[in-house]
Amino acid sequence: MARGLLVAVGIALIAGSCGSASPAPSYDGSSSIAELIGRPEPDELRSRVDAAQRREQEFISACMRRLGFEYVAWVDPSLLPSPTPLEYAGLTSREIAERFGWGISTLEPPAVEHVPDPNDAYVQTLDEATAEAYIEALRGAPSIGDGGVLFYEVGFAAVGADNCQQRAFEAGFENGLPDLDRLALLEELLDDLTLQVESHPDVVQAREERNCCLRDAGVGAPHGEEPSARRQWLDDTRGLGIEDPTWSGLRELHGSGLIERHVWAAVQEMERSLATIELRCAEPYQDVSEGVQSILERRFLDEHYALLVEVKDGL
Fold it and tell me: Which of 25, 28, 186, 201 has its CA 20 to 30 A from that of 304?
């Protein structure tokens, strides 16, 4: 739950808004936390992140020019959230699982253009001292991390830092930077809510029934761990002699022509079968978990609604 909130917070953080803060939503006792925060669908999320990154890049470009440097605003589409596969349009979750499994070996990877940073070439033309000044103007002075690795901080940890990336980050908050103590408090409370849901007796029982369903269907698990259909699929594909049963590894292998057709068909069929088993076993558990969460969320919002609205409006 808290992780989901932070994803939504991150979208609000990078996307910002183009006007004054929206009025606080009116809680009528029926809205969920997700509905109050607002979680975009994958395609809308991709569009919003793209627009936010372009605004940030334009800000950085203007900032660097004011400091006497060239900087081309750019967004790499390959780093944006993935769009929903076109093949999923109009299908239910069960139909997707039956036809495509998890979409690892059964779908062609989306053709996403990779756009390299056009500013790298410009930096290469600078002498060493000027290049260092350029990087410091862009990112700030580097810090030394574990193992002596250089890194640059952009975000709340670097508030007030005098570099263009940090200025662009802070400019995304039209109402000023949020109260981090209140944000941390909300995160802590949501973590506690998640634990309450996961430890609820009805959810514990439903999870065990899900695991029994998976084990009865032949999905194994290492000692002390819950059965996992995806882990089972990875183990089964390795049993066919495939060393890298990942999306990229499988596509590269298939494209090379080094995998026999019947082996590839077996990989795809195993994926469809195990994904369908996973969904079938998980559906009752999901229903129970969502029901318990709905009840506990109402109690949570009765007590902490004002804090949730405060944090949301602060972003």
Answer: 201
Query: What would the 3-class secondary structure string for 144-167 be?
Result: ECHHHCEECCCCHHHCCCCCHHHH
Q: CB under 8 Å to 104, separation ≥6 — which residues? A: 246, 247, 250, 271
Separation of alpha carbons 167 and 155, rounded Å:
10
Domain ranges of the chain: 2-87+112-180, 201-314
Backbone φ/ψ region at 255: left (φ over 0), alpha (ψ -120 to 50), beta:
alpha
Contact 168, 59 (CB under 8 A): yes
Residues whose CB falls within 8 Å of the CB of residue 124, separated by 6 or more in sequence, listed in order: none
3-class DSSP assignment, residue 143: strand
**Residue 48: CB atoms within 10 Å:** 18
Give CA 189 to chain center in angstroms.
21
- What is the pTM (predicted TM-score) of this model? 0.73
Length of the chain: 315
Which of helix, strand or coil describes residue 131?
A: helix
CA distances from 71 to 67, 82, 87, 161, 204 (A): 10, 27, 39, 19, 54
pLDDT tens digit at each of 315 positions of the chain: 444 444 444 544 444 444 444 554 556 666 788 888 777 788 888 898 899 899 999 999 999 999 999 999 999 888 888 888 889 989 999 999 999 999 988 988 777 677 889 999 999 999 999 999 999 999 887 776 666 665 666 777 677 778 999 999 888 887 777 788 888 999 999 999 999 999 999 999 999 999 999 999 999 888 788 999 999 998 898 888 888 877 777 777 776 777 888 888 999 999 999 999 999 999 999 999 999 999 999 999 988 988 888 888 776
Q: What is the largest CA-CA distance in the chain?
A: 67
